[in-house]
Amino acid sequence: MVSRVGSSRRITVALVGLVVLVLAGWFVQDLFSDEQAGRDNQTSSEQPASDQQPLSELPAEATDTWRLIEKNGPFPHEQDGAVFQNREGLLPDEDPGYYHEYTVETRGSDDRGARRLVTGAEREVYYTADHYASFVRVDVTR
Predict the structure, then answer these.
(1) Entry pTM
(2) Which of 5, 82, 138, 139 is the most exposed place for a label (fewest CB within 10 A)?
């Protein structure tokens, strides 16, 4: 009987230890995923300037488009200034109508091409060279 009680006790201790390890792992994973979510949800105005691409380093046509945006046009394409929906979810989540898109001309293209500047209501600017598959934040002062 003594060996059975000792064996049951060892199994109970092992199971409690396993439960503690699982809960500790779950807690640590949750802690780190919350920290990452906080970084992912940084608003565009919180992004440090070092994470921004200078406008002067983008194609020259991006500067041309920015100048038109600053003057409120006239724009070469009817779609310029249209609301950008952010369907891809790559930009910070904002209310509908927050973002607007503008064509960055692509030499030799028969259509609007893939390049765009997307502006936010807080004057932030993003550039995509691949039709919304990726974005970089743009520092229009550099």
Answers:
(1) 0.65
(2) 5
